[in-house]
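User: I'm writing a tutorial on reading structure tokens. Could you give me a worked example: one chain, its sequence, then its tokens, then a sentence or two explaining what the tokens reveal?
Assistant: Sure. Here is the example chain.
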Amino acid sequence: MTFKPTNWTGRDDAAVEHAIRRGASRRELLKMLMASGVAATAGSSILLRAGAAVAATPVTGGTLRAAGWSASTADTLDPAKASLSTDYVRCCAFYNRLTFLDEAGQAQMELAESIETDDARVWQVKLKSGVTFHDGKTLTAADVVYSLNRHLDDSVGSKANSIAKQMTGISAVDDLTVRIELAAPNADLPTILSLHHFMILAEGTTDFTKANGTGAFLCEVFEPGVRSIGTKNPNYFKAEGPYLDSFEFFAISDDSARVNALLSGDIQLAAQLNPRSIRLIDSQPHVVKSVTTAGNYTDLNIRLDMDPGTKAGFIEGMRHLINREQIVKAVLRGLGEIGNDQPVSSANRYHNPNLKPAEFDPDKAKHIFDKAGLLGTSILVVASDAAMSSVDMATVVQQAGAEIGMKLDVQRVPSDGYWSNYWLKAPVHFGNINPRPTPDILFSLLYASDAPWNESHYASEKFDSLLVEARGSLDEERRTEIYWDMQEMVATQAGTLIPAYISNVDGLSEKVKGLRPNPLGGMMGYAFAEYVWLDA
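And here are its predicted structure tokens:
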């Protein structure tokens, strides 16, 4: 079974350039072209053009300072436990994965030389030779076996445990070959292995006060909740990159302060800007914006196991109280699209276009709340700048509620500690979910009965069984049908209200070059440090 592009487009040109920067060999590039039906002579021309594009632009040297929007004293260098953007940025800089997703969403090779299967259940992973960890140790199959098995160890507390459980056998065939057996066929495995949690560690790693990876940067400084500094890895295995000598990454939780730091030149990259800042950014000639629409969203979570989520009709009423069009136009400044209360956005090929969002109907909401005996009752809604645009979204819903006599008490709490103290815990609160490349990953992380991030504590045996069936199906028509049904179940049964899919906007100094969109989210899927450079 192969997982290659089936035609050639401008996006594929970008993918070839990306593969070259990733260190792909000429043989790998030619295989990519041949699998797309490109003739040898045409392929040579494409490679020459792509090589010239890559060679013409990067500049080596310099230090980049970048700011994300959230950090915590629980920040970690353990990829298995990564949960915030700051964690993902460090993971991408200090470690590598077996595969990565290119700009077109195709799984390409990173530490793996190849990943092959005949039945989508038993897979063979060939590793690249000559790759070394920062401490000089050579990468072997034993490191991959150890890294993947950690996700199956309950004592580790891996955020990807529910996804990794399908790997029932992970073993080394020889020093550079790993055999992965799945409980059932899953054609998504190469894509799954590109997730940030599946970074490869050296066998036996237990100390995460420092990072010993194979990545483009050495971990110079790691201060949880404060900052991280990476310096260029002089023994990096890829032919190209990194271009920066070093980078510093930290969080500025206040949106205005983050923008001001960019405009003043204190930082060169400001991640996930609030839409309210876009007009200011557009008015400044020395800064530019990078827009990625890949399925990021902020959701209003109502726990089904706690009041008021246990009250019949409360969630349905809230669905009709959300003015989605106003949220997209006013809160997001048009940088988003209307959501339909399930996590698979229109950017994904399995998105169900027939599933319509609940209509904004305050009168209907009032009738439902009145019938449930909730009108006049004060309902606490927890919001924070840590969950992008949640404060503004909460205000829109609060105002709509006030007009019908529904009292929504919006409590704005600090970003620091929000994810550990309120997210998943408060009865009614906001979350913010980064893009994931497949429905299986989204549903496994967020909606399966044993999902680690089950925001509304949704549980359905039927949903769980459909998840397993879709994962193992090689019939694309049936798989699509199942995923459409599951989206409808989430939209009508779960307590996660998703009013919009948000376009992520990163602000950059005009000197920062090389940043591209990525299906895994903003800041080039959090991997910006390896691929950007500073123009002189």
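What the tokens reveal: Confidence is low (pLDDT under 50) at residues 1-11. The first strand starts at residue 63 and ends at 68.
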